[in-house]
Amino acid sequence: MATAFGSVFMPEMAITWFDGTSWSEPEMVSSDSLPMHPGSHVLHYSSTCFEGLKAFRQKDGSIKIFRMDQNLKRFAQSARLLALPAIDEATTAKMIVDVVAKFKDQVPDAPGSMYIRPTHIGTELTIGKAAAPSLESCQYVLLSPVGDYFAGGAAALRVLVDDEGMRCAPHNGMIKSGGNYASALRPIMEARAKYKADQVLFCPGGDVQETGAANFLLIDGNEIITKALDESFLHGVTRDSILTLARENGMTVSEREISVAELLERIQKPGCEAALSGTAAVLAPVGTMIYHDKEYTVGSGTLGPMTEKLRNQLNAIQWGDVEDTHGWLTTVE
Question: Which of 27, 48, 164, 326 is the most buried (most CB within 10 A)?
Answer without folding.
Answer: 48
